[in-house]
């Protein structure tokens, strides 16, 4: 199974890029992050025309995640989960589905901003909840792939402009 991930930074803007890439990449499963559109705006029909079924959790302007699966692969709809179970969060940052026995999780990790801020505290709570949920998922699904935009940059080489990010996590 060929699995890929892509932070599209607006599926509305990059819809044709995604469709074109799927046509040439031979990807079986594509995890998307930062959809920046509501569920009713998700281009499900256009993707189905290209041979992909989709599951998604959209949000206007920010966040949003999705999983695209090539026709012919088995997805049990009862295995689809939106957000981290038990973690109250209005932000749409996680979606999971089981594809041919492999647990696929698409995640858009929060940007924590500077230590000591509310955003940083939210990121730490979110990471702890994700960690605990992933541990439970791994017990149920020995084959698990966590894909996404991690928004974690411990070294200068992890960002385009290290000076701009100095003092932030």
Entry keywords:
169 residues; alpha/beta; 8 strands; globular; 4-stranded mixed beta sheet; Deoxyribonuclease I, Chain A; 28% helix
The H/E string reads: EHEHEEEEEHEH
Number of domains: 1
Please identify the top-level CATH class. Answer: Alpha Beta
Strand content: 25-35%
**How would you describe the shape?**
globular
**CATH hierarchy: architecture:** 4-Layer Sandwich
In DSSP terms (H or I, runs of 4 or more residues), the helix count works out at 4
Low-pLDDT stretches are none
Largest sheet: 4 strands, mixed
What is the residue-averaged pLDDT? 95
Helix proportion: 25-40%
Radius of gyration: 16 Å
The name CATH uses for the topology is Deoxyribonuclease I, Chain A
Taking strands numbered 1, 2, ... along the chain, how are they ordered across the largest sheet? 1-2-4-3
Q: Give the structural class.
A: alpha/beta
Q: What is the end-to-end distance? A: 34 Å
Overall number of strands = 8
Summarize this entry quickly.
The protein has 169 residues and is an alpha/beta fold.
Secondary structure: elements and pairs:
Layout (H helix, E strand, L loop, with lengths): L2 E5 L3 H15 L3 E5 L10 H6 L2 E6 L7 E6 L10 E2 L11 E6 L2 E7 L9 H23 L3 E6 L12 H4 L4
Question: How does this model look, in words?
Answer:
With 169 residues, the chain is α/β, with parallel strands linked by helices. The chain has a single domain (3-165), classed as Endonuclease/exonuclease/phosphatase (Deoxyribonuclease I, Chain A, 4-Layer Sandwich). The chain is 28% helix and 25% strand. The chain is built from 4 helices and 8 strands, in the order E-H-E-H-E-E-E-E-E-H-E-H. The chain has helices spanning 11-25, 44-49, 118-140, 162-165; strands at residues 3-7, 29-33, 52-57, 65-70, 81-82, 94-99, 102-108, 144-149. The strands form 2 sheets. Strands 1-2-4-3 form a 4-stranded mixed beta sheet. It has a 4-stranded mixed beta sheet with strand order 5-6-7-8, with no helix packed on it. Helix 1 (11-25) links the parallel strand 1 (3-7) and strand 2. The protein is globular. The termini are far apart.
